[in-house]
Amino acid sequence: MKTNQFEALKVALRQDKTGYVLTLSIHPDEVPVEVMRDFVGARYQVVMVRLSDEETPLNRDQAYSKDIVRNAAILCRDPGFHRFLLETGQISVEGELAAAEWLREELQISSRAELKDNPAAARHFNFIYQEYTAWKHLNA
Question: Of 126, 90, 121, 127, whose CA–CA distance to 108 is shortest?
Answer without folding.
Answer: 121
